[in-house]
Amino acid sequence: MLQRYDTVSTHRKSDWLDRALIEGFIATAVMTGVLLAAFGIVVALGSDSPGSPLISRWLWALAHNVVTEHAQTALPALVLLHFVFGINWAVLYAAFAEPRLPGPGWERGLLFAPLPWLLSLLVFLPAVGGGVLGLGLGAGVLPIVGNLVLHLVYGFTLGYLYPSEKDRALLEPGEIESAEEARIITHSVHTLALGLILGVGLGGFLGLVAQATVAPGQSLWVALLLGAAVGSIAGAMLGSFVGLTPERH
User: What are phi and psi of 7, to 5 degrees?
Assistant: First the structure.
């Protein structure tokens, strides 16, 4: 019989910090993959032509602004900071928010997501020249909406993957298969996410290498995005395959 989510417990598991670091890294990587895919779409659909629709001009401004210029000149440092912040948010979630929020894990993650979203709009974007709420980018409401979607992806992934005692089914005797199925699903999700992480990183790196050696005239962003996209697909496929193999204990 499955446990109901009627109560909120502030109990933390003994391995909460280790789990928070792992799940925070995975959630940040998934969020990064979505960001790269979305940026590719924005670049493809945006236009700075005066006669183009307003949404097309907003999309162009979203891909060509002071923030993306900073990203091009300091990409390794920004990627490192991105993951550091993502992991730190996961630690805060596991330490303070998750034990107190109601509902299943994915719902708790979504309830937590508005906090880093608001700080991104009110602190990070103004600090890098994008203005409060990103309104200084000239992209209308797209920075607000896009930022929200990315943080909801992060929160959902973090909450879904982070193991909570209340998210685990309390099984009656004889229900071993259900527990085994839950373990297999969790293992599959982890291997798929890890494959995605490695694929994005390795693919992006190979894209930059190809840009520097094979096609030096190609845009740095295009090479990075194409490499990361191909790598993420390959990594997710490999991760899914590995996830189908039994775990060794």
Answer: -120, 160
DSSP string, 94-113: IIIITTT--SSHHHHHHHHT
The counts of H helices and E strands in the chain are: 10, 0
Q: Is the CB of residue 105 less than 8 Å from the CB of residue 47?
A: no
- Rounded Cα gap, residues 168 and 43, in angstroms: 42
Q: What is the mean pLDDT of residues 22-32?
A: 87
Region of 174 on the Ramachandran plot (φ > 0 left; ψ -120 to 50 alpha; else beta)? left
DSSP 61-85: HHHSSHHHHHHHHSHHHHHHHHHHH
Asked if 152 and 110 count as a contact pair (C-beta separation under 8 A), the reply is yes
Paired tokens of 76? 């390794």
Mean pLDDT of the chain: 78
Alpha-carbon distance of 159 to 146, in angstroms, equals: 20
- Token pair listed for 83: 């993951």
Q: What is the pLDDT of residues 152-192, one digit of tens each?
A: 999 999 999 886 555 444 434 444 445 666 666 666 666 76
201 is written with which tokens?
A: 């990183």
Determine how many CB atoms are found less than 10 A away from the CB of residue 116. 21
Q: Which residues contact 61 (CB under 8 A, 6 or more apart)?
A: 46, 48, 137, 138, 139
What are the Cα distances from residue 153, in Å, to 13, 37, 53?
A: 24, 13, 28
What token pair was written down for 128?
A: 């890098």
Strands (E) located in the chain: none
Q: Cα(134)–Cα(118) distance, rounded to whole angstroms?
A: 11
Q: Which candidate, 133, 103, 100, 97, places its Cα nearest to that of 117?
A: 133
Q: How far apart are CA 190 and CA 102, in angstroms?
A: 24
Phi, psi of 87 (to 5 degrees): -70, -40
